[in-house]
From TrEMBL, chain A:
Keywords: Cytoplasmic vesicle, Golgi apparatus, Membrane, Protein transport, Transport. This is AP-1 complex subunit gamma. Belongs to the adaptor complexes large subunit family. It is found in: Cytoplasmic vesicle membrane; Endomembrane system; Golgi apparatus. The lineage of its organism: Eukaryota, Metazoa, Chordata, Craniata, Vertebrata. One of its GO terms (biological process) is intracellular protein transport. The gene is AP1G1. One of its GO terms (cellular component) is AP-1 adaptor complex. It is a peripheral membrane protein. Residues 700-815 form the GAE domain. InterPro entries: Adaptor_Complx_Large_Subunit (IPR050840), AP1_complex_gsu (IPR017107), ARM-like (IPR011989), ARM-type_fold (IPR016024), Clathrin/coatomer_adapt-like_N (IPR002553), Clathrin_a/b/g-adaptin_app_Ig (IPR008152), Clathrin_app_Ig-like_sf (IPR013041), GAE_dom (IPR008153). It holds the Pfam family Adaptin_N.
From TrEMBL, chain B:
GO terms for biological process: intracellular protein transport. Component of the adaptor protein complex 4 (AP-4). Adaptor protein complexes are vesicle coat components involved both in vesicle formation and cargo selection. They control the vesicular transport of proteins in different trafficking pathways. AP-4 forms a non clathrin-associated coat on vesicles departing the trans-Golgi network (TGN) and may be involved in the targeting of proteins from the trans-Golgi network (TGN) to the endosomal-lysosomal system. It comes from the Eukaryota. Adaptor protein complex 4 (AP-4) is a heterotetramer composed of two large adaptins (epsilon-type subunit AP4E1 and beta-type subunit AP4B1), a medium adaptin (mu-type subunit AP4M1) and a small adaptin (sigma-type AP4S1). Keywords: Membrane, Protein transport, Transport. SUPFAM superfamilies: SNARE-like. This is AP complex subunit sigma. It comes from Erpetoichthys calabaricus (Rope fish). InterPro entries: AP_complex_ssu, AP_mu_sigma_su, Longin-like_dom_sf. Its main location: membrane. Residues 1-99 form the AP complex mu/sigma subunit domain. It is a peripheral membrane protein.
Amino acid sequence: MPAPIRLRELIRTIRTARTQAEEREMIQKECAAIRSSFREEDNTYRCRNVAKLLYMHMLGYPAHFGQLECLKLIASQKFTDKRIGYLGAMLLLDERQDVHLLMTNCIKNDLNHSTQYVQGLALCTLGCMGSSEMCRDLAGEVEKLLKTSNSYLRKKAALCAVHVIRKVPELMEMFLPATKNLLSEKNHGVLHTSVVLLTEMCERSPDMLAHFRKLVPQLVRILKNLIMSGYSPEHDVSGISDPFLQVRILRLLRILGRNDDDSSEAMNDILAQVATNTETSKNVGNAILYETVLTIMDIKSESGLRVLAINILGRFLLNNDKNIRYVALTSLLKTVQTDHNAVQRHRSTIVDCLKDLDVSIKRRAMELSFALVNGNNIRGMMKELLYFLDSCDPEFKADCASGVFLAAEKYAPSKRWHIDTIMRVLTTAGSYVRDDAVPNLIQLITNSVEMHSYTVQRLYKALLEDISQQPLVQVASWCIGEYGDLLVSGHCEEEEPIQVSEDEVLDILEGVLVSNLSSSVTRGYSLTAIMKLSTRFSSSVNRIKKVVSIYGSSIDVELQQRAVEYNALFKKYDHMRSALLERMPIMEKSTTNGPTDIVQTNGEAEPSVLENKHITGGHQPASQANDLLDLLGGSNVLPVIQTAASTKPASAGGELLDLLGDLTLSGGPVTVPTAPLSVSQTPFLLDGLGPQPLFNDVTAGIPPMTAYNKNGLKIDFTFERSNTNPNIAVITIHASNSMDAEMTDFVFQAAVPKTFQLQLLSPSSNIVPALNTGTVTQVIKVLNPQKQQLRMRIKLTYMHKGSSIQDLAEVNNFPAQSWQ
Amino acid sequence: MIKFFLMINKQGQTRLSKYYEHVDIHKRTTLEADVIRNCLSRSKDECSFVEYKDFMLVYRQYAALVIVIGVDDDENELAVFELIHNFIEVLDKYFNRVVSCKCDF
């Protein structure tokens, strides 16, 4: 059998291959030759064959049949064999293969070998691929080598120890004594690897961290020597002495100084020195400065030092080198939370970076810009960000759009500006906007009552130009459906009114309906919008009827269902149509998109659809309140929804029925149609099931009043008006007890006349402490759409000194402002 | 922590690869091709740090060879950039010209 070819020739041959297939063929041929050579157990050429195998493995071809050969090479006595064998073990073997355990004995012997190079090989291999069992067996040997005076071995042993600690964290204590004088070495290699070992130990164990804090002075001294020492050819990199070691030491100082005042104080001087003395003309210097800045920001440094750090970052931002600018933006992003004002000073430079060509820089600048937006700079920043949105790559558009929405929501100076901004985003980046933007925008539009005509006009114009962006089309259809009458009437204070006829509006909505560009969700929106217009447009009812009936046989089930229901609305329930398709009430904003969105079905966020479905679907809205209504036999009492849920609601309702038996109504219609009630009822009642809506408005000066004061129990009412719905009065009751025994199991119930709606939220507790030492509070929300005079019957039950006490009372002395 | 170290030429052929965390051999070729595509598609004015999946790629081009180091978040990118240059200088000093590795087997 001829001698196997050398590695060099193999590489040359492979490089001559012109195609992938040719290369594969060559490699397969060579693999076959190698395999047969292995079978012959040829000792002389084994290392050559394994070397070739390793090269082929690096190119991506499987080489597992060489694993055992590596082991044989390791066991051999020749150094060249061992070298290739260990390399092969590092590349081909890992803990997944059972074969690797056979190496343990070899490594153990080699760790005690007479030649330091062999010992070094063994340490490297163990540190590279040692499994936990191997590490456990050999940790003692490694620890011994860590204490040797031979610096070549010591540095390798330190790195091996890092690997052992990563694999078997329990062995960390074992290496502790060996670390005692690691830092007193002169050899930079040992110093560097020791710092790595110390860093690893500190990161893994807080005890070690506390233990190593005493090393801070020593580290500071080493760093100082590095900076102050003159030129040393061995360690010089572009004029700076061993920058890699400097960076490592700075990082370890960062870990040690975090959250610790004493260590941070010990480092202040050296950090200032490094920051001012390092030469910044080359990349090396900047690398060290970067690490210094990161360290300063992370430890408890004094304010002067922090200002210095931010200024360094500011200087980086103006540097021509892209890498440095990128690094500056990244670190500013980390510090913007803590040192907001300092970063604001560099805002204009950051905004300029948005226009940079580099993708990484643009992304960082965008994130940083969003972090810097506040109430003062919102207008200018938004202009820049919108410009950026126009011109950026698609991968940024989604994030940028969400960021713009968030910022606009938090800091919008006026409603009109807010709506304009959102419209701009929808028209430029419409298809990248996230799904929840549509319901949020719709809610925003409903809440800004005075802007309705302006909004619908702008949306109409946008729709005329382009119907391809789904979120925009959805919002526009919804608005046109709601406020189409405003559009046609041509009134608009904010802008030049445009003349639009009913037919034109219907044209465009039908256009959306039939277009290929519209998704089925969008079609649903536009069909509902067309339907709503049947009450708002006077002359187009027939046309609308026609459109709706066509879709009664649509293939899309969603559209078909809607069309069929709307058809039914035209035919059988025409008398209810105007009530059903009334204007939407102002939606209460919840802090999170929580259960208020229970109103969604089929992933849509259109509340009106659900309402219509509810009504037309069964004429018995499934909400809780109306179940109770049925339970009570359809009486004219509106029961209380008690979220305290201490008693069964049904029985509570029954009691209240008795309660209000003779409560005469001073006015208001007796028959209230159920339909509009449920329309406005459902969002209101569901609010109670969700997170507390915000009623963070001023109390508007409604004076508090005492509602009840008997037998030591006093109940005060304080008032607030909910800022999203002026018809809702929020009453907080404060129950206090002036007796000397506390009242337990305290339950407060209330009932109101039929024209009102009441909602009781959970009380703060059931126990009213004695002698006025504390109060129980509970929130009541009263919806008073007809602005009737507020009256209430309350029932109190509690245990006092072992006996159960009940009382009824009527509250009539509500201040006028609470219900007007 | 350094995750991998690659030397790839402009045609996409791997000249040297070392992985410090195990990556399946089949995934390696796709990873290398992806990485080199990312790095070569960037112009000279763009910065040398690219975010790729959960690594940060630090790359540097020398004539027809691109050296890429994949690191995770807590590395100083500028220092790694300097490390690449240090490595090339060492090879340069040891082998005279950084063209191809001379191996004597």
